[in-house]
C-alpha cells in the first residue's frame, strides 16, 4: 500500500515563504512524476508544478519565478518552496504521484495541506 504524507502548510503574511513536502512510501513503488496541485475555495483544482524522474520541470504561469519544485529520488520526496507568497496563493495544496507499484500503474493523492496567505 502506498502512503503519501504531506507537511509544511500554514499561515503566512504576504511576501513570506513556506516549504511543502510530500513523502511517498510503498513496496515496489516506482515514481515517474510528482506533481503539486492546489484548490482554492470555489475554484477547480489546478496544477501548480510537476517534476519527472528525469528532472523535467514545469510551472503554472501564476507561480513562475516564485515557486521551486524539487525532489529527492532516494527518499521519494517532493518539495515545493514557495516564496513571495500572495493572498491569491491561498488554497489547499495536494501532492500527486504517478508511477507504478510492481507492474500496476499507480496514481495517488496526498491528504492536502492548507496554505493561507494574509494580506
Structure description:
There is one protein chain. The chain is an all-beta fold and 119 residues long. 0% of the residues lie in helices and 61% in strands. The chain is built from no helices and eleven strands. Strands 2, 4, 5, 6, 9, 10 and 11 form a seven-stranded mixed sheet that branches. It starts with a strand and ends with a strand. 29% of the residues are buried. The mean pLDDT is 96.
Query: How confident overall, as mean pLDDT?
Result: 96
- What integer value in Å does the Rg equal? 14 Å
Report the count of strand segments: 11
- Summed up, the helix count is 0
Mass-distribution shape: elongated
Helix/strand class:
mainly beta
Helix amount: under 10%
Assembly state: single chain
How many strands, what sense, and barrel or not for the largest sheet? 7 strands, mixed
- Outline the low-pLDDT stretches: none
Instruction: Give the SSE order as H and E letters.
Output: EEEEEEEEEEE
Give the termini separation: 41 Å
Strand content: over 45%
Amino acid at each position: 500500500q502506498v502512503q503519501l504524507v504531506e507537511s509544511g502548510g500554514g499561515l503566512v503574511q504576504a511576501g513570506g515563504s513556506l516549504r511543502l513536502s510530500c513523502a511517498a512510501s510503498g513496496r515496489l513503488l516506482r515514481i515517474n512524476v510528482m506533481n503539486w496541485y492546489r484548490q482554492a475555495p470555489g475554484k477547480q483544482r489546478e496544477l501548480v508544478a510537476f517534476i519527472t524522474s528525469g528532472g523535467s520541470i514545469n510551472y503554472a504561469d501564476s507561480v513562475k519565478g516564485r515557486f521551486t519544485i524539487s525532489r529527492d529520488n532516494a527518499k521519494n520526496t517532493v518539495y515545493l518552496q514557495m516564496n513571495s507568497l500572495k493572498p491569491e496563493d491561498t488554497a489547499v495544496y495536494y501532492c500527486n504521484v504517478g508511477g507504478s507499484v510492481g507492474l500496476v500503474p499507480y496514481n495517488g493523492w496526498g491528504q492536502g495541506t492548507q496554505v493561507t496567505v494574509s494580506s
